[in-house]
Amino acid sequence: MKQFDAIITGFGKAGKTLAAELSNRDWKVALIEEDEMMYGGTCINIACIPTKLLMHDALDGREYKSAIERKNGVIGRLRDKNYHSVADLSNATVFDGRAQFVSNNEVVVTDKNGNKEVMTADKFFINTGAKSIIPPIEGDIDSDRVYTSTTLLDEDILPDRLTIIGGGYIGLEFAVMYNAFGSEVTVIVPDEQLLKNEDSDIAAEMSKDMADSGIHFLFGERAEHVKDDKNSITITLSGGKELSSDAVLFATGRRPNTENLGLEHTDISLTDSGAINVNSHLQTDVENVYALGDVKGGAQFTYTSLDDFRIVKDHLFGDGEYTFDSRTNIHYTMFTDPPYSRAGLTLKEAEEQGFKAQENSMPMSGHPRSHINNELRGLFKAVVDTESGKILGAHLYGVNSEELINMVKLAMDHDIPYTALRDMMYNHPVMSEAFNTLFDI
Ligand SMILES: Cc1cc2nc3c(=O)[nH]c(=O)nc-3n(C[C@H](O)[C@H](O)[C@H](O)COP(=O)(O)OP(=O)(O)OC[C@H]3O[C@@H](n4cnc5c(N)ncnc54)[C@H](O)[C@@H]3O)c2cc1C
Ligand SMILES: NC(=O)c1ccc[n+]([C@@H]2O[C@H](COP(=O)([O-])OP(=O)(O)OC[C@H]3O[C@@H](n4cnc5c(N)ncnc54)[C@H](O)[C@@H]3O)[C@@H](O)[C@H]2O)c1
């Protein structure tokens, strides 16, 4: 039986970063990846990188097939680079195969020819990500016209009409992207409005802009039945309405990838939502087994997976003070056009939590840089605590918000008062100088 210091299952953001860290510390490392097309993990191959590249090309007016070809070239190069970033390490080996636990301290790796190899290690790190959820729906769910984000990104023919089920991150990013490429896009949203957990003014502004760009929305509806009519696909909605298109994308969430991991042969437990149960150091119920990234539940982002690596590194080699509970102000960006980025609380949430909160808002049409950019859409909002001077939240819908939100998060993490952003001297003419006005509360 092969013996390692560490076995890492899954080539995700946390796993590959950890492999390099451990190898550089002279640990003997095995990294097991079941899919040769996934070296580097989800983000590089089927998620962040291809979608943002396609969005870029769609908004640039590039033709769909040529954008898909460019995407395939870029992710192919990144996949190769990522493979070598681990395979070329002096103390790490990449194994192609599916890893399954057979006990608390052994895994069996099965390669694509069915060959099996049992391995053991002092420590195990599970980084197997998440996969698309397709809700229980009757009918021809196995039709070639039914897609997840992964399979749609593999298609080089643009659907004339695309139905998207779900109005979350994937639903809205794909809606904007495919609409810009020229598809007629309809998004089915179960709620009565878009983005019900976001600031209502911003949600309204985004809904209006997306509708103005030609995206159709059907609110208060769920997909209940799907029928492949050979030349098209028809979805029957909860209200009885039928909707035909050329392709249907399920953008209905992603669940932790614990299937076929053999966890039933271990003492590792799952949460109610199917994620691996971990403590604040990301240890599972089995002390020498950690879980990192999407598989451990919670926020599903590449940067939170990378931060999981930091937590584990601190537990293994530091004082263990940086834990899951130390993480604050998790920010995010929805890469629509323009993008929407958020950190912290809305005014309503802040008031519910008892803060003496006040907000300010600033339409991007009033900002000089917006006129240079020829992009007047957008709305920035900030929420502050008038007693402590702390920033409680920022909700930035506008050009460059994906960059600007990091500045706000830095201020929030370090308790820099909102007046510092208000009074700072910014260069000119740039989007960040909006903070002179936005934080003038
Ligand atoms: C369409 C889309 C767009 C996204 N856009 C963004 C974005 O813009 N920004 C952002 O921060 N996040 C984005 N995300 C989320 C982000 O991609 C994920 O949160 C992140 O990639 C998760 O990384 P991870 O470290 O958990 O593991 P992953 O990168 O998911 O890696 C898991 C790996 O484990 C392998 N594996 C699974 N089971 C086994 C097994 N039993 N044996 C061996 N190998 C196994 C898989 O093949 C996979 O390669 C997006 C997601 C999607 C789907
Ligand atoms: N920009 C980014 O960082 C980015 C981009 C894409 C994905 N992601 C990550 O990927 C994860 C998955 O994205 P997602 O968009 O699939 O999930 P999501 O949780 O963001 O949205 C799922 C949506 O599907 C809806 N839904 C569920 N069942 C439905 C049904 N039967 N009919 C109609 N609608 C239904 C839900 O109401 C919800 O709005 C996200 O949680 C996010 O963390 C991040």
Could you characterize the architecture of this molecule?
The structure is a single chain. By secondary structure, the chain is α/β, with parallel strands linked by helices. It has three domains: 202 residues, FAD/NAD(P)-binding domain, CATH 3.50.50.60; 115 residues, FAD/NAD(P)-binding domain (3-Layer(bba) Sandwich), CATH 3.50.50; 107 residues, FAD/NAD-linked reductase, C-terminal dimerisation domain (Enolase-like, domain 1, 2-Layer Sandwich), CATH 3.30.390. It is built from 13 helices and 23 strands. Strands 1, 2, 3, 4, 5, 6 and 18 form a seven-stranded mixed beta sheet that branches. Bound molecules: flavin-adenine dinucleotide (FAD) and nicotinamide-adenine-dinucleotide (NAD). The site of flavin-adenine dinucleotide has 38 residues, from helix 1, strand 2, helix 2, helix 3 and strand 4.
